[in-house]
Amino acid sequence: MSQAIKLWDIHGGIHPAENKEQSSQKPIRQAALPKKLYLPLQQHIGSPSELSIKVGDKVLKGQRIAEANGFISASLHAPTSGTVVAIENRAIPHPSGLSAETLIIETDGEETWCEREIIEDYRHTDPKVLLNHIRNHGITGMGGAGFPTSVKLTAKDDDHIDTLIINGAECEPYITADHLLMRERADQIIEGIGILGHILKPRRCIIGVEDNKMDAVEALKASVQSHPNTLPFEVVVAAIPTKYPSGGEKQLIQILTGKEVPHGGIPADLGIVCQNVGTVAAVSKAVLQGEPLISRITTVTGNAVADKGNFETLIGTSIADLLYQCGLDEDDLHRLLMGGPMMGFALQTTDLPVIKTTNCILAATEAEFPNPATVQDCIRCGMCAEACPAELLPQQLYWFSRAKEFDKAKHFNLFDCIECGACSFVCPSHIPLVQYFRFAKGGIRTEEQAHIKSDRAKMRFEARQERLAKEEAEKEARRKARADAAAKAKAEKEKAAAQAEATPSDNAEDDKKAAIAAAVARAKTKKGADASAPSVDLKALKVESSQARAAYLKAQRTLDAAKEASEVTPEQIAEQEADIAKLKKAYDDAKAKMDSARSGGSTPAAPAESNGPDLKALKVASSQARAAHLKAQRALDAAKEAGELSEEEVKAQEAEVAKLLTAYEDSKKALDDAKSGNAPSAEASANTADTQPAVDVKALKVASSQARAAHLKAQRAFDAAKEAGELSAEEVKAQEAEVAKLQATYEAAKKALDDAKNGVTASSKEQAVSSKAQVTDAPATKTLDQKYKEMKVQASQARAAAKQAQKAVDEAKEAGQTADVIKALEDTLAEAVQNYEKLNAKKLVLQEKVKLQKEAPAAKSNSSEPAEVAETITETKIEEDPAQKAKELKVAASQAKAAWRKLERELSSAQEAGGDTSALETQVAEAKEKYDQANEAKTAAMDALKG
């Protein structure tokens, strides 16, 4: 099944010293079991694994301890049995030197396996089942960057894989891990090729091995001959010329097939899949033995170690333990590399673990790897372009990368660079070209991520603006519909009323004759009456009746329209109904007078003053008492539902509601008694009310709240001024006296309120009002000098806020935040500066007035300063009640949390149902951000209130 194939050459390439014989003389050995294993969750390209265990759990060898998190991800397994002792951030072996979440297992030395899942008859197994099996066993590429193998084997529907290429070139100097694997475990590789062939269904398979490993070539050919049933397709073992970097994926494909992978493309575009020999062997172990990727062959070489060779090493073994086992001489160690000298990277410490992509640990002496020569200027010799296997222009890419002209570097196909180091190797000026190229790639990726974030933010902003505009248009349409309906109803009622007034009687002529006859009869009857009796002005009575009727109808129509448009509260409705009742009675009285005058009677005399109850006043009082009770009850219910009140506050408010209910019932009873004729006279009621003066609890409560707000505001301003160090000793004393005065005022107001709640009636309503006036007027008694000092403190606070905002902007720019974040911080800075300038201007005005007052003792006193100054101070002393503000923020945070949780549930349901959930994910993120902001505001308000 094996035959010779035609080989092609690649552009460029070099022939560095191989130094492979150091580690290829001994067979593969088993590394010692360490006391602890360190397993980073990020050992592959893509999303890091997601932990499925916790600290303290016992694990078995081969047990899955972290799940693949996303499509491009890989699972992680316990390399041996033991106990999870920690999960922490630790440094990982990576050129960035960054840290990652790491699982630490303390081994028990028993090597107890978990139950293993084996698929012996893979030829009759669905390829999708095999792919899932490979994914669950954590197999990744073991010859490069660690791309998840199951993803690479998942071909698109329109991709037909014609050729499977197995990479056994291992062109990097010093490394012999793949060489020893092919030489000693060729059967594992061939069995793995059979499994991959069943998944991909290729026409042929080519195994490429450099001709400096002919013993490996012979071992593979022999294994191919001994597995005729395993390989139902053509398999060719090809010995290719030894040249670096022939082991690169694109270069090996070109050598074996003559095809070039297009710029920006992948081998699958050519119908080719390429896998490393180590990866193929790991697939064979996972399917046929049920063994996940928990170990790998690692080359330990370099003249700083005594026992060089290849070791089967558990993933997570400390590099320090491995080097100690090989006899590391720390005094001779000059440079420590992970990987080979061409594409490897330096390690700053041995306290790092072996991971799935660790194929070599190179501990070199100074003689092997002397310090880099001094970098000199580029002489434009062109040797780098001749050596480049990707046929790039390294010299141009160097200039662009050095000047940070990333767009030009990208235009010159920077991402086709495989970072093989051939250009740096041949450069006579010793320029580290690969490092410049890596820097430029990182810069381009950072810019692309910033653009992606900016575009997403723009899309969210535009979607929000569109949503707000749509909601506003809908609200405006509803408002217009309500207004049109109200106007239409009003017009119809006015038209009906006008028609009712203008419609003549059906028997107008008969009515006219009857009216004349009645008038003649009345005239004859009155002929003998006393001439001194006052005459009745029928015309005036008619005008009076018509005006009263018009006023009544107009008020009724206005109320009906307001009710229909839902523009009035129940209290306003009660008041308007009382006014309408008044107008109705006035109209009835006027109509009665007119009817009496028409029937020939005299104008009724004004009724004598009566001591009976005032029915209108009682009705209005009952309506107002009912509205007050309902309003208080609704407020209490809302506060209870929001959970904003303590047990004492609930009891106090319930007592207040009960008191209002009693007042309403009393007023209603008085009204009912008056209607039935049993009510006491108005004078008696007034006397009774005068003998039992009521305490105005509401007024006392408002006075106490205002006094508390004034005291807290003064205290905070004083604390901020002291912290800023802007007050002299005299100003400190004055401010302390002012704060103490406001505190005493608040305590007096609070005591009066507590006495009123407890039923102490020593203070009358007048006293409560007086107390309220005293508290309310307290801030107004400040002298001009005190107001200036208070304004000085506020300006200082505003200046500090502006400095803090400027600091935030500077830190964001230094940290490289996105343009959106910096723009938001700059807007905050502008607002803070504007606020400071405004307060500083007010402070300067007051400062000038204080100066003028001192220079002119005969001028007016501080209590009568110009109105413009008083207005300035009034603007700065208005402050919302901190307790009320905290309650509002608490409710807002609860509502934001509920909205966020609701969207999370919707997203979970949508994900279970399948389909595109990107829009919902954006909404969840926005809702979470709003909740975080609301929660921070609530916490700050609560802390300020407690303080």
From TrEMBL:
Cofactor: [4Fe-4S] cluster
Domain 4Fe-4S ferredoxin-type: 370-398, 408-437
Highest taxon above the source species: Bacteria
Pfam families named among the record's database cross-references: Complex1_51K (PF01512), Fer4_7 (PF12838), RnfC_N (PF13375), SLBB (PF10531)
Compositionally biased residues, Basic and acidic residues: 470-496, 874-885, 926-935
Keywords: 4Fe-4S, Cell inner membrane, Cell membrane, Coiled coil, Electron transport, Iron, Iron-sulfur, Membrane, Metal-binding, Repeat, Translocase, Transport
SUPFAM superfamilies for the chain: alpha-helical ferredoxin (SSF46548), Nqo1 FMN-binding domain-like (SSF142019)
Region forming the signal peptide: none
Record's bilayer topology term: Peripheral membrane protein
Subcellular location: Cell inner membrane
Top EC group: translocase
Coiled coil, from the record: 636-670, 732-759
Chain's role: Part of a membrane-bound complex that couples electron transfer with translocation of ions across the membrane.
Name this protein carries in UniProt: Ion-translocating oxidoreductase complex subunit C
Lineage: Bacteria, Pseudomonadati, Pseudomonadota, Gammaproteobacteria, Oceanospirillales
